[in-house]
Design a protein that fits this description.
This protein is mainly β and about 140 residues long. The protein contains no helices and eleven strands. Bound molecules: alpha-D-glucopyranuronic acid.
C-alpha cells in the first residue's frame, strides 16, 4: 500500500493546540504541544495486516534544544525518547522516521513529550509498510 498521511490537526490532542502561524505545514496547520512533560498527539491508524511499518513524523523545532518524544503503539512504548533536534526555524520542517510493529485493525499511535519543553511543532504522521514487507523488484 502507498504511504498514508495522518495530519496532526486531525488527531487526538492532549495538552496542545492546532496552530497555523508558521508556514510550510500540510493540511490546515500543525500541533503546538504545550510545553510540559506528557503532552501528546495520538493518531488512530488502520493497518490491513500486522507487521513492521515505518512511522515518519514531520516536525519543526525553532529552538536549539532537543524535544524528545516517546512513541507508543496501543499503549506500549515502541521507541523511547526519539530525538527531535532543532530545525533552525519554526518554518523549517524536517522528518524523523522510526519503525514499529502494528497490529491488524486500528492502532493508537501516540507521540508523548518526555521533557518540560513539550514536543516539537508536529505537522503530520506518515505510515508506510517497512521495506522488508514490500515485494522485491524483479
Ligand atoms: C513559539 C512558537 C510556537 C512553539 C513554541 C514552543 O511560541 O511560536 O510555534 O510551539 O514557541 O516553544 O513550543
Amino acid at each position: 500500500a502507498a504511504p498514508t498521511d495522518y495530519e496532526a490537526e486531525d488527531a487526538q490532542i492532549s495538552q496542545g493546540a492546532v496552530e497555523s502561524n508558521h508556514g510550510g505545514f500540510s493540511g490546515r496547520g500543525f500541533v503546538n504541544y504545550t510545553n510540559v512533560t506528557g503532552s501528546y498527539v495520538e493518531w488512530t491508524v488502520p493497518a490491513a495486516q500486522a507487521g513492521t511499518y515505518s512511522l515518519t513524523l514531520r516536525y519543526a523545532n525553532g529552538t536549539t534544544v532537543n524535544r524528545p518524544v516517546d512513541i507508543s503503539v496501543n499503549g506500549a512504548i515502541s521507541a523511547n525518547a526519539v530525538a527531535f533536534p532543532g530545525t533552525g526555524a519554526w518554518t523549517t520542517w524536517q522528518t524523523k522516521t522510526v519503525t514499529a510493529t502494528l497490529t491488524a485493525g486500528q492502532n493508537k499511535i501516540r507521540a508523548t513529550a518526555t521533557t518540560a519543553e513539550g514536543g516539537p511543532n508536529t505537522d503530520k504522521l506518515t505510515v508506510d509498510a517497512a521495506d522488508t514487507e514490500k515485494p522485491t523488484a524483479p
